[in-house]
Amino acid sequence: MKIEAKHIEAIVKRVLSEAQTSNNSKPSGYGMFDKMDDAIEAAYIAQKELMKLSLAKRGEIIEAIRKDCRENVELLAKMGHEESGMGRYEDKILKNLLVINKTPGIEDLECDAVAGDDGLTLYEYAPFGVIGSITPVTNPSETIINNSIGMIAAGNAVVFSPHPGATKTSRKTIEIINNAIMSVGGPENLITSVIKPSLENTQIMMKHEKIDMLVATGGPGVVNAVMTSGKKAIGAGAGNPPALVDETADIEKAAKDIIAGHSFDNNLPCTAEKAVVVVEQVADYLIFNMKKHNVYVMEDPELIEKLKNLVITEKGGPNREFIGKNANYILKHLGLEFGDDLRSIVVEVDKDHPFVLVEKMMPILPVVRVKDVDEGIELAVKIEGGNRHTATMHSKNVDNLTRFAREVQTTIFVKNGPSFAGLGYGGEGYTSFTLAGPTGEGLTTARTFSRKRKCVLVGGFSIK
Ligand code: NAD
User: Fold this and answer.
1) Is 140's C-beta closer than 6 angstroms to any atom of ligand 1?
2) Nearest CA to ligand 1 atom 21
3) Is the minimum distance from the CB of 438 to ligand 1 under 6 angstroms?
4) pLDDT, tens digit, 9 for 90 and up, residues 295-339
5) Among 36, 147, 217, 420, which is best to mutate for testing ligand 1, by the most ligand atoms less than 8 A from CB?
6) Is 242-429 a CATH 3.30.70.660 domain?
7) How distant is the alpha carbon of residue 351 from its chain centre?
8) Is the shortest distance between the CB of 199 and ligand 1 below 6 Å?
9) Topology of the domain comprising 5-237+443-455
10) Between the CA of residue 49 and those of 52, 186, 251, what are the distances in Å?
11) pTM of the predicted structure, to 2 decimals
């Protein structure tokens, strides 16, 4: 068997890196460090190395990341599920595959050119340098894969600050990605992190002079923290996506799509349907059809009250113990037995119920009746809460669809499909797991993680 030079180089790099790890117990190569300062310094050096490589090599690095993550997708899904105690293993495989296959790479960086009597001007996408990326527990490996592909494609290095509740999964993902990068001759430590992620370490990262950009994927606390950091910041924050159904919709399909989107990974995705608003005329038929998709419709008001007291805290937020848990796990606490395959608990409530207004991230689906589409649009906009995140609508009336889309102003708006179609799963277009509503970049890609630069050549090169 013939071994190519690039493989020998990668093996030597890895052996040297492992030797260093065992000699001074300071891990390197796989990107993990005791101290945040060291993680940033190493990423800084790696980014300079990346810039010495060709774009073709950068493309090869991205393909190697996709390949190695694909080969490890079951492991990452299993680790994410077991460590966080949230979501569904089989859905996590789908989420990981989505980011592996549909996150844009270097092809996203096409330049614009203007040529004329005064010469040629290029508008190019250049790297920021080192990006500090803060990632959530709800999509631990998915966000690291997604951001690594986009950020590296744009020529950056990344320092990750993962949620402490997903330390092992995040570390494994970073290790797999660094291995992939080095296996095709890319620099070591192109993505880094600390062995023990913590708020203190994130704060060091947010203030560090060698961090050129911050990207927060999480709830309002972290988005606010990066937006007030004084650095260039992208905030991908919380959502509370409503699904609006009017009387013109294909109700059987709407019921199927809503349950599929809502129960995906036990409602963890920030894009997943969190509440349904339905026009009175078709409400009973919608709920009747939801029952065909393995849900439990809870009708007893006392039981609904008990469910509320179980999963909503006194402060009005979601009880973390139940975030991303299976529907039958939640019901067990109320003395009800169901199988693991139960997808959701459907409850009809009034429009001010906390189930409707709180981002729960649990397979509990509140349904609210309204008299007509006007009232429906008004309520759905209120439920979305100005997050500019995600909304879906089931309707065959173009005017209604257009009006709701205009009024709700979300980053993702899905018509007649499950919310995950907006992530590129069963819908056209690329994916992103960092959806920047608050700062306005939308579904982030390599281009988002770039600086737009203008390069002017005066008086030549126009051949028009
Ligand atoms: P979280 O806000 O608790 O944590 C997210 C990350 O921020 C973690 O790494 C955490 O350690 C860190 N963090 C939290 N508060 C911080 C602060 N004040 N300063 C610095 N760092 C801080 O969120 P989570 O439970 O991990 O994830 C769920 C939340 O994230 C939901 O609100 C969901 O809607 C949102 N989310 C949004 C997107 C998006 O693309 N818009 C994607 C995934 C999740």
Assistant:
1) no
2) 222
3) no
4) 999 999 999 999 999 999 999 999 999 999 999 999 999 999 999
5) 217
6) no
7) 28
8) yes
9) Aldehyde Dehydrogenase; Chain A, domain 1 (3.40.605)
10) 5, 8, 56
11) 0.94
